[in-house]
Design goal:
It is a single chain. The longest helix has 31 residues. This protein is an all-alpha fold.
Amino acid sequence: MLTRALEKDRQLSQRHVAPALGNADSNVPSARSILDRDTLIPTAAACGAVAGLAALTKPNATALALILACAAIVALRSKHRKAVAVAGAIILAAAAVTGPWLFRNWTTFGRPFLSTAGLGYIARVTAPATLGVVEDHQVPPWSHAWEARYHGLVTQAATRFGWDLEPARTLSPREADQRERQIAQVAWQLLAVHPRDALQAHFVGFLRSWAPQEQTFWYSHLSGHQWEETGVGANSYRDAIEILFAGRPVEAFELSLSEPWGRLDALGDALWYSWGLGHLIGVGLMMLGIWRLRHHPALGLAMAVTVLYATLPPGPIGYVRFRVPVMPLITVLEVAGLVFLTTKLESLSANQARNIYG
């Protein structure tokens, strides 16, 4: 919606403003009135409001308004005042929607925030995953071993800040918030000691989230048998990525490619390898699509950053569900990449034909 409004503004400028400025007796006020009557600012405000509602619904969307504002600035970079007005409309609308909730949290907890998910994420996700890299022993998220690592951080925080693990009374909202921030502080100190391991845990988790998983669903529905009966782990592709980054490429190859070949039936082989290859091709086409849209930086940047923003933050707990909301954008980028690839191949074929036949 915002992209269409920005394109409309550009077309109006080309059709009315530029010709008017080129004539001595130009009707400049009329041209400006045309731009004043467009829907760019209301559209930007509507997009900001939707971004604000998205942030209230899911903290993962907190930066969506900022992404849209940056895209508007890039699209209108030749018209500084309008760029500032559009970006400001997006940010102000998002702030108006989220403001009451921020004020409520300020009065309740003593500080303004949209969600405490960030604090909980550091302690419950990033820190346990980092310990897995340090100890060279990753465990599934939310398993008993994973929760034991988190409770170790809680115990450290209780010892350091002098509070009971099982308080005799119900904590007030501010006390509970303070304890959560103290646990996060202990987790941050762990990450500061092992920054490289923390980055590796997060990046590998991000890559794992792009591994195909749908083949197990379709196998169960088409064959009538559960995938577990095949003896191939449903997360073998995901686990292979982790093993590869741990420096064991042969083991990763065997887990993801050679072992399934010997255990799966014909349907399982077809689904397992076609889905793996399809995901690789899809990622490649998406990258080509981003490159193809480099001449449209506002559109390409907004789409690429939105996809990255939706899929990168979950890190070690990244699953398909984080990619689902941005699948329309991913599909558009893949189609753009396919068009770019076919155009290049046709051009290459035409050049070779001319060289051969003169």
